[in-house]
Amino acid sequence: MPIDVPRYLQRLQLDAPPAPTLDGLRRLQQRHNAVLPFETLTCLLRDAVPIDLDSVQHKLLHAQRGGYCFELNGAFLALLRALGFDAQPLSARVLLSAGDGELTARTHLLVRVQLDGEDWLVDTGFGSLTPTVPLRLLHSAPQDTPHERYRVQQLDGGDFVLAADGGEGWRPLYRFDLQPPAPIDNEVGNWYVCTHPQSGFPGQLRASLTGPAWRRTIGSGRYTEYRPGQAAIRRPLRDVQDVREVLQQQFGIRLPDDARLDPAIDDWLQRSRTA
Questions:
Q1: What are the beta bridge partners of residue 111?
Q2: What is the pLDDT of residues 79-107, one digit of tens each?
């Protein structure tokens, strides 16, 4: 089934499809980040995450849920192509929690867009450090966004590293090249993320949503709200009901009707408090 463009635009609260221009791309990315949350409720329940387009668009467009990179960027890629953008998938090795010199697997999906002969990096699925506007790919100088600063550095071997600076110094996020992954590569990477015992996702709850002047996150048993130029507001999540209300009210998530959900949230809270 092709991507449901009218339903997608309705979900993004857009009255008409933006033109396939840089301004149109920027508007689509900003709306995506502000409306479709990064969230790992499926992983919290320790279920496998299907990433075929039918499953993803049902979850994002009909069930009023979010997802993670293979879902968010996978759907966004399909939307961009349907709207006439020259867009290709890329895969990355996440460096955010890796040790020096550690070779991580390709477990992140992102998007490359070509406009008027220039390459742009587009990402709607990297959680609390997701870029909120397109970034020039072949441009090594720092790039300002409404939130963090980013830079894309090309290594001697030809790979690229995306880093972010939120005011506390540069942090490498992920490493990638310009070879589009085959669909089976995404399937393997996704399967590792959502099921492997050494992955940081099974049994964990993370969420992020980013508007023009704010970024909201859930992680490590806390709710945090960031506003540019201001100190972050953090508070511990008290109990299951508190988590449910924050997910619904601050992230716009329609919680799944699953008897396992509340026990899974409670278990995550208990583990977060003893970590």
A1: 89, 122
A2: 999 999 999 999 999 998 887 778 899 99
Does 4 participate in catalysis according to the annotation? no
For the stretch 188-222, pLDDT in tens is 999 999 999 999 999 999 999 999 899 999 999 99
Token digits of residue 209: 């949503």
Candidate list 4, 43, 108, 119, residue with the active-site label: 108
Is residue 82 within 8 A of residue 20, CB to CB? The reply is no
Give CA–CA dist 16/12, Å, rounded: 10
Task: Indicate whether this model's pTM tops 0.70.
Answer: yes
HSE-up (13 A, CA, CB side) for residue 221: 13
The single residue of 4, 32, 119, 123 carrying the catalytic annotation is: 123
Q: Is 258 assigned a catalytic role?
A: no
Q: Catalytic: 139?
A: no
State the maximum Cα–Cα separation within the chain, in Å, rounded to a whole number. Answer: 52
Identified catalytic residue from 69, 119, 147, 194: 69
